[in-house]
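Project outcomes to date are best conveyed with an example. Our students and postdoctoral researchers have been running inverse folding experiments weekly, and each run begins with a structure described purely in tokens. The record below, which covers 330 residues, was selected by the lab manager from last quarter's runs and is presented without edits.
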């Protein structure tokens, strides 16, 4: 994504950045190519932050790595942000290393899907053996999820019986799938529609199904969550609660309002194909998690144990989830 496109998206958000006045401010810093920007736009577009008596200041930042820490994480840890989202294993890892952070609300099941040609003989997990399977990285959560499910339910490890092929990037993985260099690929959810809606490919298996099975909960389980610093939570607890209320309002609007997605597509997406936009919309609605409770958190712990059994604590970067990582009722 070009710098000009990022600036154009920021300008769209800035149209709704009015004077906060006396309202408490929450500084949201999110990746310019991440799906939360649809939600943040909706909050600002309809003034859901003001409805709940706070000002959400949204800035899109780079997703590049700086000293091994994603820029959004650095923004929070260095005191330049009050709100970001990352996956909960990364939250646990940073907290275990002493970061002053806490996850206070879910975002969604930010995993991917297994994509294969429509005429492929790969129809599910049991068909992976003997095939070349494209992955962004072998330590990618989609591949670890696949291995965990195969080991738990089918008594084999595709890391041993199939051939995982590392692409190194989402863009390269899409090329490998389209050009037949791999028999199937584990692509991230928001990119799956670009492949399935523009070529003879299908999503064989959403990774969200494996998330639910391995977590052993009926609750829609989040992989990514919103987090803030413990100091901000302690000092601005009412503002944090206000954000969760604005978040729910925005989710409800995005789930119900198809016309809003046409507007979002025109202002924030780079897709020209309406079918791709609709598929992204439907994927977002399936991915997002409106709320959570202790049963959800218990499922997140169970899923973590499955992933650690497959990849090991060293690969995940953390041996256990520290206490007070999740605050389900801030």
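After processing, the design step wrote out the following sequence:
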């Amino acid at each position: 994504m070009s710098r000009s496109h990022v600036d154009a998206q920021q300008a769209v958000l800035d149209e709704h950045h009015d004077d906060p006045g006396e309202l408490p401010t929450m500084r949201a810093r999110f990746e310019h190519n991440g799906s939360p920007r649809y939600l943040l736009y909706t909050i600002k577009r309809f003034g859901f932050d003001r409805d709940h008596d706070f000002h959400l200041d949204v800035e899109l930042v780079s997703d590049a790595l700086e000293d091994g820490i994603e820029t959004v994480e650095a923004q929070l840890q260095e005191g330049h942000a009050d709100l970001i989202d990352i996956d909960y294993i990364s939250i646990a890892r940073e907290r275990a290393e002493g970061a002053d952070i806490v996850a206070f609300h879910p975002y969604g099941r930010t995993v991917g899907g297994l994509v294969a040609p429509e005429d492929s003989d790969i129809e599910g997990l049991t068909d992976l053996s003997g095939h070349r399977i494209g992955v962004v990285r072998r330590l990618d959560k989609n591949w670890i999820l696949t291995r965990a499910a195969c080991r738990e339910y089918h008594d084999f490890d595709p890391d041993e019986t199939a051939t995982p092929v590392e692409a190194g990037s989402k863009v390269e993985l899409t090329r490998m799938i389209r050009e037949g260099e791999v028999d199937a690929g584990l692509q991230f959810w928001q990119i799956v529609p670009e492949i399935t809606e523009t070529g003879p490919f299908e999503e064989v298996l959403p990774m969200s199904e494996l998330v639910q099975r391995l977590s052993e909960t009926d609750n829609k389980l989040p992989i990514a969550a919103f987090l803030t610093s413990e100091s901000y939570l302690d000092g601005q607890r009412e503002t944090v609660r206000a954000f969760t209320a604005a978040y729910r309002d925005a989710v409800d609007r995005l789930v119900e309002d198809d016309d809003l997605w046409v507007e979002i597509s025109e202002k924030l997406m780079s897709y020209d194909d309406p079918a791709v936009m609709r598929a992204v919309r439907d994927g977002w609605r399936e991915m997002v998690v409106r709320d959570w409770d202790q049963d959800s958190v218990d499922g997140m712990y169970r899923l973590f144990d499955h992933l650690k059994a497959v990849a090991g604590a060293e690969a995940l970067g953390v041996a256990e989830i520290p206490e007070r990582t999740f605050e389900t009722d801030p």
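The longest strand covers residues 101-108. The first helix runs from residue 3 to 14. The training component of this project remains on track.
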